[in-house]
Model the fold of this input.
Amino acid sequence: MSKFLYIVSVVLAAWARGQAVEGTLINSFTKVGIGGAKVVLQQGQTSPYPATTDATGRSLIENVRDGAYSVRYEVDANFFPTRRSMSIQVPAGAASVRIEGRLVPLARISGRVIDPRGQVVADAVVELTTLPSFWTARTDPGITESMTNCPLSCLSPYPHTRYAGCS
Done:
């Protein structure tokens, strides 16, 4: 009887501890891991399980109780999520759950606005549109203009072109 109680107590202790959620966060263009990002498992408005990715983009959150969670990534302003949120289910008794996040690096566009005679146009307004978003910049007095934090996957060399998946 005591052996049975010992086995039951070990199983219950393992179940009460929860499961591990192992994750990888990668740059969707280079396929390289993104280090230093915060990974958060949320239930409703509470964020009970945070972790930080290592230099290779891997994270480990231990002792996660069973249930449904949404996964949120917090990184610097140089990345754009490929999808707004991801939901996972952590089943009771599972050894571990694997998640993978992919982020799109944001671009910087720079250059000069030239008139038909080849002269630099001072104080020109330049707009990049990727429906429904847009970025606007104004050229320096006769020098250059630049736009930052534009999702690369949404940029097109053709006017009024929208790539699939850009929203």
Summary: Residues 2-17 form the longest helix (16 residues). Residues 139 and 145 are 4 Å apart (CA to CA). The chain has one helix and eleven strands.
